[in-house]
Amino acid sequence: MWLITISTLSIIAFPLIVLEYYFTRERITLEDAGKAEDLEKQQPTGRQQLKAIFSDKYCLIIFAYFAINLVAAQLKNTSLVYYCNYVLGTYNDGYTQSLVSILGGLPMGIGLFAVWPIAKKFGKKNTTVAGFILMAVGSLICFIAPKSLPIVLGGQFIKNIGALPSAYIFMALFADVLDHLEWKHHFRCDGMAMSVYSIITTVAAGVATGVLNLGLSLSGYVAPVFDAATGVTTGVVQSAATQNVITIFFVGLEAVTGLVCAVLLHSLDVEKVIEKEQEEILQRKSTEAVC
């Protein structure tokens, strides 16, 4: 079943991704090109763009980070209901999931005003790395006492504060990498890079759903029982193995992936060279305009 889910999502997504690629124009190139025929001559082939993307260490790092972080986040989101019903609270108790969700969303509003001043002072990469370390710490706190509501809520608050830089800064780092690719190869790869980004987004959702379903199935998960006479659905007390699987997916996995993403991004030092590279791109364009 989980393999079918992944395959179905991939089949549906592929035509959309192909359309996105072929109907995306590079904004900077369009502004600089005076005629449509000149634009067509400047456009690199798909093979050239793919080679540029997958031969650049910064691009590989940021795509690997995005894939790992997204799969972990999708697993956490899809296992939320199971965790609140069978580990932290009781089935449809009416408050456990609400409290966890509120604590998850509250830092996002705070972060809108706090993250960018910090990133400007310490750098986008450094802020994001520190955030992932904080996320790992918060996840570990939850994992130590996964059935204690106060501890889990506290750990969730810490973890979600740590997730703020990734939520708000990722696209800015991605833009720096795209500028670096233009400096390195003399053409932009925005359309192809966004297609790869879309593929990762789509496949990650299928992988997360499939892995969660597989874990629940192998651990002996028992679905809620519906009583047709009363119209009431009653949750079943899950085995220790099933509760452990749910706990790992919701609060344990990001303790590991947070550290992995921090290590990956530590090598993403594009910020050290991007200003110089952007200046060289502008100089290159000025020279081409004069010629």
Structure summary:
By secondary structure, the chain is mostly helical. The chain has twelve helices and two strands.
Coarse shape: elongated
> What value does the average pLDDT take?
84
Secondary structure category: mainly alpha
Total E-strand runs: 2
What is the C-level CATH assignment?
A: Mainly Alpha
Poorly predicted spans = 1-14
Secondary-structure element string: HHHHHHHHHHEEHH
Main-sheet strand order equals: 1-2
Characterise the protein shown here.
By secondary structure, the protein is mostly helical. It has one domain (2-290): MFS general substrate transporter like domains (Growth Hormone, Chain: A). 81% of the residues lie in helices and 2% in strands. It contains 12 helices and 2 strands. The protein has helices spanning 2-22, 27-32, 36-42, 46-54, 57-88, 96-122, 124-144, 149-162, 164-185, 190-219, 240-266, 271-290; strands at residues 225-227, 232-234. Strands 1-2 form a two-stranded antiparallel ribbon. A hairpin with a 4-residue loop joins strand 1 (225-227) and strand 2. The longest helix is centred in the first third of the chain and has 32 residues, at 57-88. The protein is elongated, with a radius of gyration of 23 Å. The chain starts with a helix and ends with a helix.
